[in-house]
TrEMBL record:
InterPro entries for this protein: TraB/PrgY/GumN_fam (IPR002816), YbaP-like (IPR047111)
Parts of the chain that traverse the membrane: none
Name this polypeptide is given: TraB family protein
Keyword Signal: yes
The species this protein was found in: Novosphingobium taihuense
Keyword hit for tRNA processing: no
Organism lineage: Bacteria, Pseudomonadati, Pseudomonadota, Alphaproteobacteria, Sphingomonadales
Signal peptide: 1-25
Family matches, as Pfam families: TraB_PrgY_gumN
Keywords, comma-separated and alphabetical: Signal
């Protein structure tokens, strides 16, 4: 299950970002002000699947990024320009509405989060919250999966990453400006259900690993962004997917959804046109990726960038 929180679904990641805004964690001490860095040019990986009259682009995303990254140009920009529709994991739902939906299913009933924890896990959890200057009771109403996700996302926010700079937000803004249709592979409710249906034991393990790996997350986030920007799906696969040592969780978050999406793509090839699909980068990396599953159906994916 390690690092599963770096492979969060779009709905969960964006809603968790909204929730962290209501919790005042103490960020690392600020450095003296410096001149704004020059925009950083990135070349993330892009693939396409095509037949005689249909082209489907496959682009891996990171749901939150720092500002000042340049990637929507070159082959990626041209691919979006040539597409009539942008397909993402979920529809474009305001963060506040997503947060409201998350809270509707992510609250405990008649229990508190800390009462569910083993003593050693509770001690480590309370120590982390104390270090972050967060009241230890702050997440008591939350299901373990939601508390784990919130802690997993918090380092992104503390490191200056934001959902408004994330790939989906940037792509949607560009697509709307160009008059393109928007579509989605899943719904917010479906993605929330993936976590809410997890056994309590799995949820608590997920939370415990988010606590233990909190300090490591800052370096992992930087490496993940670098590998994404360098177009290194092999590195991303090792970092994001191969560390997920809980087979049930890996199948729930990654592989079953990859199978669903590969089937969707295969059927979409029957309809002429050009489509740009943007999903979490972990789904296009490593073993059992969407591309691997398409290949098993006789559909080749060509690397464009």
């Amino acid at each position: 299950m390690k690092r599963a929180y770096h492979s969060l679904t779009a709905a969960i990641a964006l809603a968790a970002f909204a929730f962290t805004g209501s919790v005042r964690a103490e960020a690392p001490a600020a450095k003296p002000a410096a001149a704004a860095p020059a925009p950083k040019q990135l070349k993330p990986a892009l693939w396409k699947v095509a037949d005689a009259d249909t082209t489907i682009y496959l682009f891996g995303t990171i749901h939150a990024l720092p500002k000042g990254l340049v990637w929507l140009d070159g082959p990626v920009g041209a691919a979006l320009d040539s597409s009539s529709e942008l397909i993402t994991e979920i529809p474009d739902v305001p963060a506040a509405e997503q947060q409201k939906t998350v809270m509707a299913v992510g609250l405990l009933k008649g229990e508190t989060l800390r009462s569910l924890m083993a003593d050693s896990d509770r001690v480590a959890y309370e120590a982390l919250l104390a270090k972050l200057k967060i009241p230890v009771e702050a997440f008591d109403p939350l299901e373990p999966w939601l508390a784990g996700i919130t802690l997993g996302v918090m380092p992104y926010a503390m490191a200056g990453y934001g959902a408004d700079s994330g790939v989906e937000a940037v792509l949607r803004k560009a697509a709307v400006a160009k008059g393109k249709k928007l579509g989605a592979l899943e719904t917010v409710d479906y993605q929330l259900g993936l976590f809410d249906q997890l056994p309590r034991e799995t949820q608590l393990k997920f939370l415990g690993e988010a606590v233990r790996d909190f300090d490591k997350s800052f370096a992992i986030i930087g490496t993940m962004t670098d590998e994404w920007g360098a177009g290194d799906p092999e590195g991303l696969g090792k970092l994001m997917n191969e560390q997920m040592d809980d087979a049930e969780l890996a199948d729930t978050l990654l592989y079953q959804r990859n199978r669903n999406w590969a089937s969707w793509i295969a059927k979409r090839l029957d309809q002429p046109g050009t489509v740009f699909i943007a999903v979490g980068a972990g789904h296009l990396a490593g073993a059992q990726s969407v591309q691997d599953l398409l290949k098993a159906q006789g559909l080749a994916s060509t690397r464009v960038q």
